[in-house]
Amino acid sequence: MKTKEQIKLVKIAGAVLSLCLLIAAIPSECISRQGSEKMTLNNAINIALENNYTIRAQKEKLTASDWSVKSAYSEYLPKVSWNQRLTRVDDTSVRYANFAIDGVKQIPGMEDVEIPPALFKDTHASSVGVTMPLFTGGMLKSSLETAKIAKATDELTLNDNENEITLLVTRAFYEYIKAIEFLRVREKALELSRSNLKNVKAKNELGLRPRSDILRWEAQEASDESTVLDAMNGVALSNISLANVMGIPLDENLEVEPYSEEEFNRLIGLYSRAVSDNNTQDLIRMYDTAKQNNPGLQTISLQKELNRSSIKLARSQFFPQINLSYNYSWQANDTPNLDGYKSWDATVNVTYSLFNGFGDYANINRARAELRQAERLEEDYGRTLSVSVFTSYNNLKTALARITLAEKNLIQAMDNMQLIRNRYNLGLASNIDQIDAQVLETTAEVNLISAKYDLLISGAELDRALGAKFLENR
Length: 474
Hints:
Elements: H1 4-25, H2 28-34, H3 41-51, H4 53-74, E1 79-88, H5 91-97, H6 99-104, E2 122-135, H7 139-205, H8 211-246, H9 261-274, H10 279-293, H11 295-316, E3 321-330, E4 342-351, H12 359-425, H13 431-466
Helix pairs in contact: 3-7, 4-7, 7-8, 7-11, 7-13, 10-12, 11-12, 12-13
């Protein structure tokens, strides 16, 4: 019989084994996410690109386009086919068809002559056929061009979708960090209000401050608590927005790292050196970059090439179609074996359409109209892209200017706060002066945070419009 200690050890071993099995059943991605470092922007973008259904569908479409190109190439190659035919007829037809042969064999001397039946009950016919186009009026070439352009268009569409997802994630990521920073500043202001309230209460007990000062700080504390609640709500909403664009569960709590002061100073320096006072020259240079790299504009340009190819395809219907056909066959008899005499034939087939109800004429004019439509769309997209580049670039410059002003305002607000605090402690400043100084400092800090992350968002929007990294092209 087992002792109590043995039973206890068995239970412990069973519990450990169950725990090990449970851990083994947990998906590896869950373990890695929980034990991983804080989320970075690149990680968020990669997760979003992997989870986005539009991106995944576009990749499948690109695969299909690649096979379409291979299919267009295959049309240049000869087509080889094996033909096997079995024909069964009724007994009466067989008897009538072979009646003459039976009569011939009644002739003296013809009894032993082997005469094949004129018709079999079961007839097997076998042959190999080869067909190959000789001249199609440019139809095969146009079809290949169309397939290649469609593939290139799908590649650009995929690139454009990835750029759009990257912008959405970048914007949501920075908005989330901004909300976290706002909450930090609001919580710091609340702690300061509580500290001042405690200090005023202590001085009130000593008769150094009136009761009205306590009421003012209590009101300020309530106001700061309200702003903290709003900031917490902003963090929660930003977390959901980021999780949504990443394609992960909305209730997942994402941990991100705000940018350090050193990193911000480095980025601000890069952007400051990248812009200049010559706004016109900068915009012209960026317009050229956008025309070369923006996937949306390139897609419309390819659409024009696709329409030109459609015109060639429609024009090919006005030319004759010449095809070569070669057939090698075995004697049709009552066995599927490849025996008996063999024969072959080669045919050059020329087909020229004389009249098809004006369909060819309609197709070529439709393709020409679609080409003109693509040209107008390219002009319109170019104008829209120019506006987007102009707006993003000016938002970037405005954000840089706002950072400079916000830094100055924060320094002034901090100096003013220190001055008012010293004067307040000496009894030379009122309670309202200290509250106003604290609010001014908090507002200045919030404005600086907003300006810094707006700079990063504006840079991402400019990258999206250019189709290339702004800082890397300077």
